[in-house]
């Protein structure tokens, strides 16, 4: 039996969350085309008869411009020191960026074995794959390399086998039927934020944070009551999220509630409030309160 923790790292929009969801066979991380969607270190669990892999999704490593960006990068570098194996994801459809180069340096500094994963192979030719692979090989002495497409599933089983071969021997770390150890409070907060990312204008997403204040099971009726605060930096952003006559907040709440009901198998009463907290992305204490997990 083998078991261990595997960090999934890469620049924004390289496909980390999509890959983890595909490997786990269930939605673990929220997905959006907007950069910096992932803000928590999320764990997805793959259990096979011969192994258990705990995948740790991380925020996209990027050039930090505020306290939030610095915190997200620290989530990445901190994770590198805590795992048995690192998957360094590189977008095969594009040339290596400065962020790819810096992140490879962080992986090297952490001293953990690195497995190169070229993503989005469905979007490029074999020549492009080989070119990016050769460029990446100059950055780090990888223990293995694999190319995948999380969209069509190509290469995913090969990736699982290679991860298992590189993990240490060990027992099951989680129950066999568990797919994530993500608490419901954070799952709810991320689902709400995903619906905001999906439905609002470009100026809103990075300025939004969601904090779930309460998850309460009410009997009878198999009902979950969830209360959450949505934080933005400007009154104009608050107006966008609320929408004309409250239409947008109602739409966000309905979509989030439906997904939470599917996730929990229970009826959900969802209460959302939108608050303005100016320049919260610059306030380290607030960031750590929201993302304290």
**Distance, first to last CA:** 29 Å
Let me know the number of strands.
9
Provide the helix percentage: 25-40%
Coarse structural class: alpha/beta
Mean pLDDT: 87
CATH level 4 superfamily of the largest domain? P-loop containing nucleotide triphosphate hydrolases
CATH architectural group of the largest domain: 3-Layer(aba) Sandwich
Approximately what portion of the residues adopt beta-strand conformation? 15-25%
Spans of 5+ residues with little confidence (pLDDT < 50)? none
The main β sheet shows up as: 6 strands, mixed
3D shape? globular
**CATH class designation of the largest domain:** Alpha Beta
Count of discrete structural domains: 2
Query: Count of helical segments?
Result: 9
Radius of gyration: 20 Å
Question: Helices and strands, in N-to-C order?
Answer: EHEEHEHEHEHHEEHHEH
Could you please say which CATH topology of the largest domain applies here? Rossmann fold
Q: What's the quaternary structure here?
A: single chain
Would you write up a description of this structure?
This protein has 293 residues and is α/β, with parallel strands linked by helices. 37% of the residues lie in helices and 24% in strands. The chain has nine helices and nine strands. Strands 2-3-1-4-5-6 form a six-stranded mixed β-sheet, with helices on both faces. It starts with a strand and ends with a helix.
């Amino acid at each position: 039996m083998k078991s261990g923790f595997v960090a999934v790292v890469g620049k924004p929009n390289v496909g980390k969350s999509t890959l983890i969801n595909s490997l786990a066979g269930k939605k673990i991380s929220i997905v959006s085309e907007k950069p910096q969607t992932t803000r928590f270190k999320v764990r997805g669990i793959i259990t096979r008869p011969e192994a258990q892999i705990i995948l740790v999704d991380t925020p996209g490593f990027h050039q930090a411009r505020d306290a939030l960006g610095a915190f997200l990068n620290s989530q990445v570098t901190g994770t590198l020191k805590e795992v048995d194996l690192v998957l360094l994801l590189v977008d095969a459809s594009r040339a290596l960026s400065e962020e790819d180069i810096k992140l490879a340096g962080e992986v090297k500094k952490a001293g953990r074995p690195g497995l190169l994963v070229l993503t989005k192979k469905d979007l490029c030719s074999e020549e492009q794959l080989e070119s990016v692979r050769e460029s990446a090989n100059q950055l780090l002495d990888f223990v293995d390399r694999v190319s995948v497409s999380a969209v069509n599933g190509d290469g995913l089983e090969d990736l699982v086998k290679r991860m298992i071969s590189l993990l240490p021997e060990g027992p099951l770390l989680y129950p066999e039927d568990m797919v994530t150890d993500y608490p419901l409070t954070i799952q709810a907060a991320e689902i709400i934020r995903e619906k905001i990312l999906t439905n609002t204008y470009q100026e809103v997403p990075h300025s939004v944070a969601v904090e779930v204040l309460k998850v309460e099971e009410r009997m009878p009726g198999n009902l979950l009551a969830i209360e959450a605060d949505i934080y933005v930096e400007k009154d104009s952003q608050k107006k966008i999220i609320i929408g004309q006559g409250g239409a947008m907040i109602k739409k966000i709440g309905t979509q989030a509630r439906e997904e939470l009901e599917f996730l929990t198998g229970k009826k959900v009463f969802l209460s959302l409030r939108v608050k303005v907290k100016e320049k919260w992305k610059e306030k380290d204490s607030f960031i750590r309160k929201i993302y304290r997990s």
